[in-house]
Design a protein that fits this description.
Layout (H helix, E strand, L loop, with lengths): L3 E5 L4 H10 L4 E6 L8 E3 L4 H10 L6 E4 L20 H22 L9 E6 L15 H21 L6 E7 L2 E2 L15 E2 L1 H14 L8 E3 L8
Parallel strand pairs: 1-2, 1-4, 2-3, 4-5, 5-6, 6-9, 7-8
Length: 228
């Protein structure tokens, strides 16, 4: 087994499913806010210093990277349906978790991408972050943060393709997945939702089918393009 993978946000519903799935075929490194008794598992508070130190400790390059961090709601904040519901604290938290942390991961881990052979790096976005697909409004903080994440993907891919010729850096919409993030919003029969295990299978299938001509793009769990 000489293929390697990195899962950031490995304790979430999708991240943990990806971690367990990829262990069969890759040496998997994980970054998480929670402790687990697995090899190559790094606990982080996701501060810049923590991510920088972990990047220094890991002495290898990756074939496959999934950055799964995200935030939609907690006990204090729910998705805002109206402008009058926007709160600075909630918006700051959303940007920190959905944008700043993934940006710091890219900053300190891009030199773990291969130069001489392919690396696929997928950041988990959301269809609600698509400006062109926004037909219902609402969910202000989450939509804005994911739209910003999409710009991070596009801008990073544009920079890195100059020196990492075999890199595929994309945003992926995982679909509606049973997880702590989506649990309050699932409605039986309203639209298709799947288990985290099925989502992990879909994401691996889509990611590994991509090539460097796809870098800087946005795809859903079926491999279909999503407009920015």
């Amino acid at each position: 087994m000489n293929r390697t993978a990195l899962i950031v946000g490995a304790s979430g519903g999708i991240g943990s499913a990806l971690y367990l799935q990829l262990r069969d075929t890759h040496r998997v490194f994980a970054i998480s806010g929670q402790t687990q008794e697995f090899p190559d598992w790094f606990v982080s508070d996701y501060s810049e210093n923590s991510l920088k130190e972990i990047a220094r400790e890991i002495d290898c390059r990756f074939d496959l990277v999934f950055i799964c961090n995200g935030f939609l709601h907690n006990e204090s904040h729910a998705p805002e349906k109206r402008l009058s519901r926007i709160e600075p604290d909630a918006m700051h938290t959303s940007y920190e978790r959905n944008v700043v942390i993934p940006a710091m991961v890219l900053r300190y881990f891009y030199n773990h991408f291969y130069r001489e052979r392919p690396t696929v790096c997928a950041l988990l976005s959301a269809r609600v972050g698509s400006i062109g697909d926004n037909r219902t409004g609402g969910w202000y903080s989450y939509r804005c943060a994911k739209a910003t994440l999409n710009m991070l993907v596009k801008t990073s891919a544009t920079e890195l393709e100059r020196t990492y010729k075999h890199l595929t850096l994309v945003a992926l919409h995982p679909g509606t997945t049973q997880s702590a993030l989506s649990a309050p919003f699932l409605r039986q029969g309203s639209h298709r939702w799947v288990s985290a295990d099925e989502t992990a299978q879909n994401l691996e299938r889509v990611a590994t089918a991509l090539d460097p001509t796809d870098t800087g793009r946005f795809y859903d769990w079926r491999g279909e393009p999503v407009e920015w």
